[in-house]
Amino acid sequence: xxxxxxxxxxxxxxxxxxxxxxxxxxxxxxxxxxxxxxxxxxxxxxxxxxxxxxxxxxxxxxxxxxxxxxxxxxxxxxxxxxxxxxxxxxxxxxxxxxxxxxxxxxxxxxxxxxxxxxxxxxxxxxxxxxxxxxxxxxxxxxxxxxxxxxxxxxxxxxxxxxxxxxxxxxxxxxxxxxxxxxxxxxxxxxxxxxxxxxxxxxxxxxxxxxxxxxxxxxxxxxxxxxxxxxxxxxxxxxxxxxxxxxxxxxxxxxxxxxxxxxxxxxxxxxxxxxxxxxxxxxxxxxxxxxxxxxxxxxxxxxxxxxxxxxxxxxxxxxxx
Length: 320
Fold this sequence. Notes:
Blueprint: H1 6-18, E1 21-25, H2 32-48, E2 53-56, E3 83-87, E4 105-110, E5 121-124, H3 131-140, H4 150-163, H5 174-184, H6 190-199, H7 205-215, E6 217-218, E7 223-228, H8 230-236, E8 258-265, E9 270-277, H9 283-288, E10 292-293, E11 297-302, H10 308-316
Parallel strand pairs: 1-2, 1-3, 3-4, 4-5, 7-8
Antiparallel strand pairs: 6-7, 8-9, 9-11, 10-11
């Protein structure tokens, strides 16, 4: 357990024990960590407090429901008195479901930079590789009274693996592995229960990979990027949020320092940007372009592709 959080953990547990209805939220367009943390915490709450009403809200994590995560609940909480626990979300605008605003009390667990104080109690630790390991740290503090089940452990482990880049990113430390070990010791089958549903691809993905390899651009400073318009997405039969799933193509190539996925989001009339790097901190540039995130993994957005040269130039300037 992270010792400095011992007191606040007890305060959070007291609030959990106080409320009959608890709703767990996470950010829009969820990734493995957001969904892993949400479902891991919700499962632990259901196991520990079987007489309470535990609800998860948001939209399903498309490609990984129900192969890895269960379907999100469809419950109207507008007339309920409830405790909201929001995970992996730095600002309230990104919380997936506005009903959190009606919560009687709000608790926030996060590992992104603290950009907004929207909760009554907040624990934010930017030094952790995933939010899953933060919430699991909280859960494990009460292991004797409220033990972690193998199912909850599976969800937390998937979140840790997803946001740590399979333990490759620079913010991975001994605490990351300690939390992973807690999950493994619960007897989860990491190959069949986690890695297979997380990383097994359809054969149609080869078509997308082929297209990207034939259409990517590499700057003189080693910034690799590909942009998919709605027409491209339709022809490749993938959604806007799936475009970033192919970024790992560039992750281990010598000479590529930063890699970027750009995909058109017609619903919001913008282009969604995902940025990754090996060592270079790219979150500052992401913030300049309406986003943010972590040092080696961030997101941004462009109004039009006319802004793309400016984005690449800004990333080029990071490479020394």
